[in-house]
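Researcher: I'm preparing a figure for a lab meeting and need a structural model of a single chain. I don't have an experimental structure, so a prediction will have to do for now. The sequence is pasted below. Please return the structure as tokens so I can convert it later.
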Amino acid sequence: MRARRLVAVASVAVGLVALSGCRTEPGVAAYVGDTRVTEDRVTSILDEVRDGLSSQPATAGQADALLPARDQVVATLVLSDVCRELSADKGYQPQGQVTPEQVAQQTGLPADATYAKKVAEFYTCMSGLPAGEPAAPTAEDLATVIAAGRAAGAIPPDVKDADAASQLDGQQLRSALATRKVLADAIGGYDVSVNPRYRPLAFPLLSFKGDVPAVAVPLGEPGSSVTDVSTPEPETGESVPVIDPSAAPGA
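Model: Understood. Here is the structure written out token by token.
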């Protein structure tokens, strides 16, 4: 999971639609329009990262722990292509710059690896997408976030759901929900498909400490609610707050 952390220029993600019946070509991990993300390409990227980690004294013994998951690589490649197409269509321009060196510093991955470069490209592109107006969470949204917080150990057992909700419902959560809606709506017109072997996937917008996502955009089959993916952390190091029971209203 550690390889999924990087300095956030914008907390954004793009949803993917389901694989259509005629797009099941062997050896293809995903499609973005007519563009194929092949399994061979994913394997090559992972092999390059593994070799780079093994050749560096500082990471030689941590290669397996730092190596990104295969589905993570697929998502990064797909989302990079989607963001590039969306930005070209809408005239969006990056508002920030993420470099491979920043990715390397945050993740421990080699800065000269293709994957680090693609991650940097992805977050740079995403910085130009509109975030939308902060959205008030629904009861379902809050229930999902609270459940994630309890799973992460961020919400003590003696803190009631109502008290947790009052602390969690803030600017970070509302901005993440707005971004999720903007991007989920925008991706509807793009012909994106993911191989069933990678379903269900989700890309996070906001997480509790410990790589437990609080808000995520599903990637894969429509309607998927799985969110077991970590999220970039803001440059300030903030994340969904850990609730201190002594500070909880009514505690």
